[in-house]
Each structure stands twice: as structure tokens, then as C-alpha cells.
Amino acid sequence: MQASAPPPSPGAAVSIHNLWKRFGRQAAVAGLNLELPAGAFIGLVGPNGAGKTTTLSMTTGLLRPDEGTVLIHGADVWADPVAVKARIGILPEGLRMFERLSGRELLQYNGRLRGLPGAEVDRRTEELLGVLDLTADADKLVADYSTGMRKKIGLAAALLHNPDVLFLDEPFEGVDPVSAQTIRGVLKRYAAAGSTVVFSSHVMELVEQLCDWVAVVNAGQVIAHGPLDEVRGGRSLHAAFLELIGVREDDGQALGWLGGDR
Ligand SMILES: Nc1ncnc2c1ncn2[C@@H]1O[C@H](COP(=O)(O)OP(=O)(O)OP(=O)(O)O)[C@@H](O)[C@H]1O
């Protein structure tokens, strides 16, 4: 989008340069710069309203930035969308799906849309349904899926074309521990094969377990990034996060009425 963007670092899966998005007078993303290394399992963390979803939406071609450039393996998301979309998988927050298709039909439709041969679509569909423990519900309509099942079928749809980079916005929100374990297993296997995973989460323990690289976003900018151990600097990620964000101490005055004499 801008001619002046510097070349991406070699080895970067995602290069974000001077990204801006304003909603009215508020800047949701305010000149954000970030280089995400290829082959890493990356956690994007930040408080509510920090700009994570807006950043991920602009990075994956779902929301047009006001300013800035995003490159995925060197291809510009907005100038070369077809090339970029072939290389990425996305599980957005509040994903809208074709509700009147069954889970199996949804995957088959996605596979055909991606240009995969029919036999390969069928093979991958059945394998993904099996690994994600959805085979028994494969003929149920997506409209009748639970929250966890929706996340799993959304993940299967995002993985079907074997993308180089997978973006997930809050993939574990509303997911029970059993489904979360299944999703974790699939993501670990995908990342172990050298692909890049970028996911946003509020759950620091999960980010610490899964990620080897983190970026902390606050007020539309990146305030810390790098290998997990560097960012947490000998503390838990939770403690490092609170310190980086500058959490306000409770002065004990507010809500003094709450739980007191009635
Ligand atoms: N479509 C929109 N219209 C107006 N304001 C918006 C819109 N989308 C996001 N915002 C605002 O932009 C800011 C960043 O929102 P965003 O959803 O990107 O944050 P987030 O870090 O993903 O938050 P959370 O962790 O709560 O999901 C918030 O103040 C939000 O209210």
C-alpha cells in the first residue's frame, strides 16, 4: 500500500509496517510495526480493546487498513490478495459459516474453493474430522454445532489447504478442556512441521505452554516482542504482562459499598 515500507527481514513470515486503523476519532491500531519469524508459534497478547482483533483482521485481508503495509512471506496482503490467501489459513473471532451445510459439506466446499482435487479434498476432510473428533457429528448441520465444535470445524477449514501461516483469533475461547487439548495437539503438529502459527489469547498460561515467541499489544501498538523467555525475563508471562501494561493499583476506595451493610 505504501512505497516507502522497508524490505521485510529475511525469515519473516509476516511483516507489518506502520499499520493504522481509526474508528471515528479513536485509533484502534496506531502505527503498529511487527516482524513475525517464520516457523514460530507466536502468541499475540494484550488487554481488552488493545487492537489485537483489528490487527489480525488487517493482517489477513479482512479489514482494509487506513495506512500501512502487511507482507506475508514477501507478498502484499492488499496488493496481491490471491497469492496471500493461498498461503494463509484464518480462524477469525465470531466466524460466520455456512450454517445450512453439514460439517463434512463445509470442509468439502472449502477444499473445492481452494482448488484442491476432489479425491484429495475427501481424504483431507475425513482425516481432519477424525483428528478433531468430529466424525460422529460430520453430517450434523453447522447451525446445530456447539461453540467448541464450531471452533474445531473452523480450524479444520483453515487447515485444509495446508497453509504456510495460520492465524487464530481466540481459538480456545468457549472451548472445553477436552476440545482444547485436541486443538492444541493439532496446532503443535502443524507447527512442528515448520509452519507459522499466530494466535491471540488472554490466557497467559496457554501462551506460555504453546508459544515460543510473543508480542504484547497495548493501545494499538506493540510494546514488547521477541522469544518468550526474553519477554518474560525470568518472571511468569502473567507477571511480565501486568508490568508491561502498567496495571493500576486498586486504591480500595471504589466500590466500598459492595458487599457491605445493606
Ligand atoms: N468496527 C468497529 N467500530 C468501532 N470501534 C471499533 C470497531 N472494531 C474495534 N473497535 C474499537 O477498536 C479498539 C480495539 O478493538 P479490538 O477488537 O481490535 O481489540 P482486542 O485487543 O481484540 O480486544 P479484546 O481482547 O477485548 O477482544 C476497541 O476500542 C474497540 O472498541
Automatic annotation (TrEMBL):
Main location: membrane
Membrane topology listed for this record: Peripheral membrane protein
Alphabetical UniProt keywords: Antibiotic resistance, ATP-binding, Nucleotide-binding, Transport
Subcellular location: Cell membrane
Single GO BP term: response to antibiotic
Gene3D superfamilies for this protein: P-loop containing nucleotide triphosphate hydrolases
Name the record gives this protein: ABC transporter ATP-binding protein
